[in-house]
Amino acid sequence: MQAKETLFADLMQGRAQQFQVPLYQRTYSWSEKQLAQLWNDILDQAEVLESGETVNTHFLGSVVLAPSPQNEATFPRWLVVDGQQRLTTLSLALAAIRDHMADGQPDEAERIDEEYLINKRKKGDDRFRLLPTQADRPQYAAHIHSVHPARDPEGRIAAAYRFFRRKLVEADDPASPHDVLRIEQAITSRLTLVSVTAEHGDNVHRIFESLNNTGLKLSQADLLRNYLFMRLPTRGEHLYETHWLPLQASLSNDHLEQLMWLQLVLDGDDRVRRQDLYAAQQQRFERAKTGGEQTEADIEAYIKELHRRSAHFRKVIHPAEETSALVREQLSRLHEWQAAVTYPALMLLLDRRERGELDDRETARAISYIESFLVRRTICRVPANNLNRIFQSVPAQLPHDVPVVDGLHQLLSAQNRFWPDDEELREKIRAAPFYHYGRPNQRKLVLQRLEESYEHPEPVDFGAARLTIEHVMPQSPGEEWVRMLQEDVTEGESPEDLHARLQHTLGNLTLTGVNAELSNHPFERKQGLLQGSHLEMNRRIAATERWGAREILARAHELADRAVRLWPAPLRGVGRAERSRDWHLAHQVLAALPHGTWTSYGDLAAFIGSGAQAVGSHLAKTGGVANAYRVLNADGKIAEGFQWTGQDGGDVRARLSADGIHFTVTGAADPAQRLTSDDLALLLPEAGGEADSAETEETARDRTEPRGEETRAARFFRQLEADDTPATVTAVRELFTRWEELGGWIGHGAGDVTTSAFLMVGNAGSPGRGIWPLTVYPGGGRGGVAEVVFQHLASREPFTERPLRAELLARLNELEGVSIPEGKLELRPSFRLSLLENDRNRRLLCETLGWFRDRWEDRDAT
């Protein structure tokens, strides 16, 4: 065999040739986890190209090739023995780049096609530079040829292509833009492969088996520890006893590795990645050799410094160990925010305090700037994807000519860091759907801080209180709410549009311990419960006569005043690009629309915190927006006067039909395939699209709880009985019994107010090991529902395979009254529990659950 280092461009470019994936290879199988890691590596290399740095390329892995039996002298063909996942992924990424550029830079798109994806003068299968295995070929061909198939193009290949299309839209983020051609260059010339070419007669099956034999890898911390102590022949034992063992005892292996990485960052390396820790530290030691030799004193100084900084790190991850009440309070809030990205800045501040450069009060003020930076960006929906880079650069970029606190304020206020000013903060509190951005714990912390700002003489103990986020105007409004909203609508807007626009804004949200009791009851009933609350913000809501658009906006104005005082502003002159960010978010979510779905102008407007008319105007004049034609009027009709921007897409209805959208006899798109603003929020979890859900909570088997306290199961059925008929409650009890007979168990969300039930199978109490097909929720005034958690199943074996999820959907759709479109296979659709009163429906669902359990138990058999 011959082995050589190569690049994707060197491998694929040149004369016509073909790389064939043989039949014995598995089908394409990369999931979003592997795709996301590769994408981060690509962006890192694109930034290297942008900066002009001379840094090593990124090693991607090996590609093993053998001559194909169909090889010809004028048309070389190679069997891909190993590496087909990498080659397929990179080819799909380039296809996505080609299509992303098709409108604006058609010549570049054509160049990418001809250099990397096709053999221009060949026909049929010979036209493809890479020819996947037969099972993957139709999907791959559709994306390489940019055709629009008449049926749902789903599977891992389609998912990977959509992933890259979505990420390319995200890469246009005004807060951290990336040149698409730089991304192409990073893929083709910065990702290194080792190409191993077998000769005729080599046993390629043996090569394949040996290459796929994997073992447990040592961690970066393990490698570095071994490196250090191998170079301490005389001082090693003493240092191990006095410094290393205490260090290792005080931190987990993961935290120790994190501290080692932080040490490099604090010493000024603002580019090092944690996965490159060992190599980077090794290089630093090599550069620091004295007279060509590395002394034990150098290693000893490093270990002692690591030990010293571990005391700071423990205060960051365990704020209770901080002695200053002022600093402890600030560190605790960031710890609750789960702000690990801020560790480089926090470690720097604690280090400078130890050196005497700041006192406790100054340290607390500096940390308050960090908190404000995070909170304001979350409220204003600034994507979090560049936070790691921002905070990693703090130690290296902190100004030296001003005090530390002022320097940090100045650094975070720089234009390219997008710390929102007071004007933007006020606007987003008024209009943005706060409930659909950031993590649930972060949203709760924002409301907690706002409540604390009222300085109630008897403040709530938030650590002990069992509070959840409540929508004052409910998410599912009854007739009385709709009548109230009708009084506030503006021209061209329906009560439903107004509700969608305001329901998730900060002005309509509060904290409560009686969420289930409040539910979606009329405001008059909620007033009494809110009036008895210990929270000042709830008493103020209860003091109003009604709760419509005017009151929600008035409360938003009041909360904005408090937010401006609570979270310090950036220095004047900070750049603002909030509107372009809003449109960017719209472009991202449209690029992520699943096949067979559409959305409305109002839904998209509610998702980004804008107006339906503004959305329509933007899409009409902005070219190159993926899936813009799938935004329709609220009744599912194509907007009057619709015309394509950029390339002509032909007849709009024909294009929608090709995308799997069905039409009713009235010519409207099927309403079951419509994605609401809530559905849209689920499509961008990496942008913060997490809604509060029992899936984010601990689930456990019902167990004996402290005497006098209601069990989770009892709480669940009490809430169910308060809202559903006795026949529905009996049907749910029968369903749970049948599930347990099948070998499953019922878990309940840890929420102490609003509860839920999970139909679990797998090991109890083992995170990541359990799996559940349904989550059952009491209705809270509108009837209980069973939520089908396709989004959760997509990351759990064996249901990572889309055909299995599709079969689950087909089985559920056999129930009378259930009609879930295929476009919602990536979401969490639901159906009413009342349907289970039907004996046939209950029987079919139990059979489906038995099928689900069997598929899970057989997951390792294939």
Level of helix content?
Answer: 40-55%
Major sheet: size, sense and barrel closure? 6 strands, mixed
How many domains, as an integer?
Answer: 5
Structural class: alpha/beta
Number of helices: 37
Q: Estimate the strand proportion.
A: 5-15%
Task: Identify the strand order in the major beta sheet.
Answer: 1-6-3-4-2-5
Uncertain stretches of 5 or more adjacent residues: 212-216, 687-707
How would you describe the shape?
Answer: globular
C-alpha-based Rg, rounded: 29 Å
* Number of E-state strands: 16
Q: Round the mean pLDDT to the nearest integer and report it.
A: 85
Between the first and last Cα atoms, what is the distance in angstroms? 32 Å
Compact description:
By secondary structure, this protein is of the alpha/beta class.
Characteristic terms for this protein:
alpha/beta; 5 domains; six-stranded mixed beta sheet; 16 strands
Description of the structure:
- There is one protein chain.
- By secondary structure, the protein is α/β, with parallel strands linked by helices.
- It has 5 domains: 2-211, no CATH class; 217-283 and 293-317, no CATH class; 423-566, no CATH class; 578-687, Winged helix-like DNA-binding domain superfamily/Winged helix DNA-binding domain (Arc Repressor Mutant, subunit A, Orthogonal Bundle); 694-857, no CATH class.
- It contains 37 helices and 16 strands.
- The strands form 4 sheets. A 6-stranded mixed sheet has the order 1-6-3-4-2-5. Strands 11-12-13-14-15-16 form a 6-stranded antiparallel sheet. The protein has a two-stranded antiparallel sheet with strand order 7-8.
- The longest helix is centred in the middle third of the chain and has 22 residues, at 296-317.
- The radius of gyration is 29 Å and the shape is globular.
- The chain starts with a strand and ends in a 5-residue tail after the last helix.
- The relative contact order is 0.07.
- Residues 212-216 and 687-707 have low confidence and may be disordered.
